[in-house]
Task: structure prediction
Amino acid sequence: MTPEQMRDASLLELFSLEAEAQTLVLSAGLLALERDPTQADHLESCMRAAHSLKGAARIVGVDAGVSVAHVMEDCLVSAQEGRLYLRPEHIDALLQGTDLLMRIATPDNNPERVEIEAYGVLMARLLDPMAAPAPVTAPVASVMAELQLEPPTPKVEVLIPVAELQPAEPPRKAKRTTENGERVLRVTAERLNSLLDLSSKSLVETLRLKPHLATMQRLKRMQNKGLRALENLNVHLKEHALSLEAQEALDDARRLLAESQQLLVEKNAELDEFAWQASQRAQVLYDTALACRMRPFADVLAGQERMVRDLGRSLGKQVRLEIEGEKTQVDRDVLEKLEAPLTHLLRNAVDHGIESPEQRLLAGKPAEGLIRLRASHQAGLLVLELSDDGNGVDLEKVRRSIIERQLSPAETAAQLSEEELLTFLFLPGFSLRDTVTEVSGRGVGLDAVQHMVRQVRGAVVLEQTAGEGSRFHLEVPLTLSVVRSLVVEVGDEAYAFPLAHIERMCDLEPADIVQVEGRQHFWHEGRHVGLVAASQLLQRPASQNSQQTLKVVVIREREAIYGVAVERFIGERTLVVLPLDERLGKVQDISAGALLDDGSVVLIVDVEDMLRSVDKLLNTGRLERIARQGSQAVEAARKRILVVDDSLTVRELQRKLLLNRGYDVAVAVDGMDGWNALRSEDFDLLITDIDMPRMDGIELVTLLRRDNRLQSLPVMVVSYKDREEDRRRGLDAGADYYLAKASFHDDALLDAVVELIGGARA
Result:
């Protein structure tokens, strides 16, 4: 590449950056002018933006940009001088010009020359409707038709004033700046993530100086004691006559010890100062790196006002978008994921919520509909409220649609509450549109919004008032890079629960734990909350501590709520999220990792996944009871049996028989579920059926016998197949006992279990 080509490439890049900034100014200013066409400040800002783009385009030799920006500037100058009153068609044309300029500045999306000519004809017609007639070329006419504008009969020749032919202003070095005047540089997301990772590790490393400094202080105290002991020894020895050599040796020892203590004091002071300075700088580095990921909420709103305005006009509606909290700081990754759901909700509000001007006037409302979007920080979360003053949701139409789609019987649908009806709007494929349009009716509805919000560990709720409008309430984390968490101890390891999902922490007395329907619960805010052991969920050894109280974390995800028993509360920490290695895949109940202040690793709990694990344990009957103090040894001594059968009746029958005999029993619904249970828990016996979905009993036994840890586990096969070849097939696979269900009775099963593993107590 020649120096001239390098120079041109850099200028084109600068022109693209300037076009991106100036078109944002134009879009915002033109939308404001549409509401009040005489606002001098907005006219001035738009004119200057068009003028700057014209000069920049001329410098880099982009003639199309010069032409488009020039006619836009002419229109805005005419409005400034009072020769032209900006009407909606002028705003439409100027916004089209803004889009054209952005396309011109984008190398891969340059418009055709005919589009530029068509735009010049359009602007000439709007500026001078009485211009002399002249034919319009066919390509220009076709482009005008695509723009849904009637082509003018005259061909207007746009004259460029002499002043515009003068040499352009000297090129200025384009710098992207914030509203505070700070320069903006582009940095890849990978480098930013690496910087944050390194700064967090640097902070952890500086904290490791604290215990080292404490050890040095301890050494200083020990030396001080040694010096005093030597002084006492010298006093006692004065009563005895010492040789000159002994006295000199004693004096040398005292001197050397005093000098070493003085040196240690000086170096300790230096180390203390260094540790303080290093920790302060590491903290500033970390905070700065973290701030680099935070962007104002306004970054996701670029073009949204324009989109709402254009969509409203295309539907024959007058709609205005008001935004509050544009400066609210949010993580860059969260902003990127919010753009699509916010766009969908805004389009949904314009299409479904806001009525036509005629309907609004009849209802006593202003002709112009209003959509409000408000962003704020609350309890470590970004809270978004998107509301409109439209007609709300037609609940009866929702009810009819539920019945028509056979989602619920008519009798049940008639009794659904408003809240229950609104939840149907979030189902995949659910739509209130009977026909497909460019905006609605394709079945891609609020389920996509809910899915994208859940991807960032957020939640969305819909509320509405008939005739007054709807309101969407979204809560998402401020950042995916840092999470404020409660760190607890489970099985002598640290785990972190994100505070956003914690309802409360509490200490439970043994008397507070009650049995409801065979499961452990405790009373919390007027309702029974299920109690589960974190050690079972996270597959850690159960605690053997003898504390009277039970440490419980109450977690909530929407309507699901459970109490999770842990060993110890370590405390609240702000953790830098470190993603798990992709080769691990999805680790059950874990979302990511982090480092504590002392450099030790902590795993961050995936609360939503954990709640699914609790439901699975409940449905399969494998949820363990949390033993109260004094009964742990007894509970631990009970022998455990895993029953694997796809028949609910057979499974429950075997479970109850074994429970009544004193065994601890878990169940699995098929071979795959049983294999997962065997790998994660310890059992004394496996009882399995043969014919099951996903994995049959023969495959299960074969896998078990190949596993080094499980190959010695006793196995009993209980099957309806009682032919000799079936029996031989089960025993050849590795079963220790084969029992046919045809001859199955209580004593036969229990006798076989006792024969294999003995009684229920170890």
Q: What stands out?
A: The radius of gyration is 37 Å. Residues 244-293 form the longest helix (50 residues). The chain is about 45% helix and 20% strand. The chain has five domains: 3-165, 190-295, 302-476, 482-620, 638-757.
